[in-house]
Amino acid sequence: MPDPDDRSAPETSAPPSEPPAGPKPRRPYHYHHGDLRTQLLAAAEVVLAERGLEGFTLRECARRAGVSHAAPAHHFGDVTGLLTAMAATGFARLHDTIAAEIAAAPHERTARYAAAAKGYMRFARDNPQHFALMFRHAVLDHTDEALCTAASAAFEQLVGLVAELRATPAPLAHPDTRLDVAMTWATIHGLATLVLAGHFPFPSGQGDREATITATVEAAFRRLAG
Amino acid sequence: MPDPDDRSAPETSAPPSEPPAGPKPRRPYHYHHGDLRTQLLAAAEVVLAERGLEGFTLRECARRAGVSHAAPAHHFGDVTGLLTAMAATGFARLHDTIAAEIAAAPHERTARYAAAAKGYMRFARDNPQHFALMFRHAVLDHTDEALCTAASAAFEQLVGLVAELRATPAPLAHPDTRLDVAMTWATIHGLATLVLAGHFPFPSGQGDREATITATVEAAFRRLAG
DNA sequence: GCGCTATCCTGACGGCGTCAACATCGACGG
DNA sequence: CCGTCGATGTTGACGCCGTCAGGATAGCGC
Lengths: 226, 226
What we know:
The structure is a homodimer. Chain A has helices at 36-51, 58-65, 73-76, 79-103, 109-126, 128-134, 145-166, 177-196, 209-225. Helices cover 61% and strands 0% of the residues of chain A. The first copy, chain A, is elongated, with a radius of gyration of 21 Å. Chain A is mostly helical. Chain A folds into two domains: 36-76, Arc Repressor Mutant, subunit A (Orthogonal Bundle); 79-225, Tetracycline Repressor, domain 2 (Orthogonal Bundle), CATH 1.10.357.10. Chain A binds chain B through residues 52-54, 135-139, 142, 151, 155, 174, 176, 178-179, 181-183, 185-191, 193-194, 196-202, 216, 219-220, 223, and chain B through 52-54, 135-139, 142, 151, 155, 174, 176, 178-179, 181-183, 185-191, 193-194, 196-202, 216, 219-220, 223. Chain B binds a DNA duplex through helix 3.
């Protein structure tokens, strides 16, 4: 079984289990070809990015992985299982993206706070379909353990950031941390969601759209922090 | 053609076009039975609320409306057309809900501002599937005129509220109205989206969940305003 | 060497959206 | 008053989908 905590980007290179094997046109179908689960996840990632969640298809994933249409059932049960597994890795990757952005920021509370928001937005922009999947409640199995732990880890990261911001008396006057957390998450999540839905205010681009968005996030969270 | 600006809740009562007509068992199918378009929209509303967007089906809508599976095509083209029409009425209803909440609030800037947010949240809570549909970019036709005008009206309502809030020098220090609008919309939209996705922080209910959410919205927007 | 189980295939089923072909109704012009 | 014509419904078909049942294959412990 592949490592379920694998957070790396999907690899499209075939494992060495398929040598060219000369002009033999095709083997009479190989059962047990190694780690189909990983390859299915990789294929699903491509399908999701290409076709979106509306055009996502279990059979297409199987096709890309070179197996029959019923093969995924043995690893994921049904389509919900596959999407849930993808969502779990998505939360893990979101966590890593935010952590990387924080690590690259100057070691100062407000800057780290804004950097986290920038990381959130960057993940959403770079993986729009994956991001949308993670919050599409109806298509996920919320009893799945991997999903819960991955989502919780990302949430705890957020709580930690807010706590760090409030460690000194200056910022975020309201004493209720829950409200602070809710506000922080809602603001960045709302920004990301609206941008992805094409509803970002004033998108008619004079100038760079990306820069505008990043600047908005930066300004919003510096204001939120102070 | 029915009024495309109809914002009332769907009516389930049959139009008087079907008199009992004695014991005649059934007419050999009535073509032109009045306003199928309206009835299809009403049926679609029920299907959406019951099954969600994932379980939404054109054929089921046709079944509920008592017509054949291909009938909707004559009024909406394809499923995108129907969903787009529903999204348009959704934006109109959101606008009305917010307006009603503002009208019921004390005539003071901050209170009206918070009331609008409360209206936004109330609409999302009372029509979760409809609300989700309105922001599901991939299933809507964004060249549709009715959708554009309805969405723009709701957006202009938001812009007006922010402008009203900034009319006196006190609140929302940042001079950039665009940032204020973005922040306002993102915050309330993020709150609504996260609540609907079941990701609202600390949902484990000691006490009334609804009250907690409403109080959070209230507090968040009073803080945003001042 | 032998079954056991995980893995994978084939084939089938019902449901879906869409299209093409046909039926009917209402309206409008002769 | 009648004929035609477009708008509005119906029927049937197509291909695709997810899922399930049943059979094939391969590796592994005994």
